[in-house]
Amino acid sequence: MEALACVLHAEKDLRLEPVPVAEMQDDQVLVRVGAGGICGSDLHYYLHGGFGVVRVKQPIVLGHEVAGTVESVGANVKRVKPGDRIALNPSRPCGKCKFCQAGEHQHCLDMWFYGSAMRIPHSQGAFRELIVVEEHQCEPVGDQVSLGEAACCEPLSVALHAVQQAGALTGKRVLVTGSGPIGALVVAAARFAGALEVVATDLHDAALKKATEMGATRTVNVSVEPGLKSEEFTADKGYFDVVIECTGAAVVLKDVIPALRPRGTIVQVGVTGEVPIPINAIVGKEIRLVGAFRFHTEYALAARLIKEGRINVKPIITATLPVNRAVEAFELAADRRSQMKVQLTF
């Protein structure tokens, strides 16, 4: 059996073509994909053929933010049944290595993550009509939310993990730098975690408007002076308890430290290359700098929060196109001034 999929052959060479559907085993589930969100990594593969040292070296099915409907289940599957609407966890850790055994599955030594060119052969993605998955990847989302909303479970999981890395946020003042899809979801996750204030920054007012819709108590356009250099944020050694950095821009660390109080925490979510770190300021303020990479247990939490309407992800979905317009959708997603999350329907 075959099904149509979005296959990237090289930079800007995205084709809709049939790919084989694996034979379902007794512990597996056949899912008809209904919606998928285009992530920043998908865009890097499409626009540039990869990012950093990670390059597309063979045809790869893109996509890891997906949701769909269960078509059929193997004889041993108990968690879901045909007709169930599910969010599909793209993370497939081995469960056997020392990190998996320690509960740190996001650092698995033999991770297969949908739509990733980090390994050879590439880990094929989920922008396809039909896909065979493991039972544990399926998170039921009920009938009250759209499959487009359910497809936001993956980026919300990233945001929830970032917030978890920050520690307790109840009553805290939180700064979120960058109001793209992840930044906007971090805003919502921080509010859910009990933050007293969540201030969001960006270079564009359209993104800041979305951050407000996601729960930001205030926004700052950092392209307009004084931005974060405002006396309000820098007086008395800093205003914020926590910074969650979602841009990956080299200049941001230098800009946020004066606004962060002594013994505050910076959670780095945005990825980039090497950046200069103001070590003297880190030492002098006893700042805690911690990374946030992917997620594990947070995926089930994200599915439940979306299912129960406790976090509304609809504001970040700015465009939805059918899969036969996939190239158009990718080009649209590249316009960060007008778009937040562009999704495909299957």
Keywords:
346 residues, 20 strands, Quinone Oxidoreductase, Chain A, domain 1, Rossmann fold
Outline the secondary-structure elements.
Layout: E1 2-10, E2 13-20, E3 28-37, H1 40-48, E4 50-51, E5 54-55, E6 60-61, E7 65-73, E8 85-88, E9 91-92, H2 98-101, E10 112-113, E11 130-134, E12 138-140, H3 147-150, H4 153-165, E13 173-177, H5 181-192, E14 197-202, H6 205-213, E15 218-221, H7 231-234, E16 240-245, H8 250-256, E17 260-268, H9 279-284, E18 288-291, H10 298-307, E19 317-322, H11 326-333, E20 341-345
Parallel strand pairs: 13-14, 13-16, 14-15, 16-17, 17-18, 19-20
Antiparallel strand pairs: 1-2, 1-6, 3-7, 3-11, 3-20, 4-5, 7-8, 8-12, 9-10
CATH level-two architecture of the largest domain: Alpha-Beta Complex
Q: Percent helix among the residues?
A: 10-25%
Q: In the CATH scheme, what's the topology name of the largest domain?
A: Quinone Oxidoreductase, Chain A, domain 1
- What is the number of helical segments per DSSP (H or I, 4+ residues)? 11
Summarize the model shown:
This protein has 346 residues and is α/β, with parallel strands linked by helices. The protein has helices at residues 40-48, 98-101, 147-150, 153-165, 181-192, 205-213, 231-234, 250-256, 279-284, 298-307, 326-333, and strands at 2-10, 13-20, 28-37, 50-51, 54-55, 60-61, 65-73, 85-88, 91-92, 112-113, 130-134, 138-140, 173-177, 197-202, 218-221, 240-245, 260-268, 288-291, 317-322, 341-345.
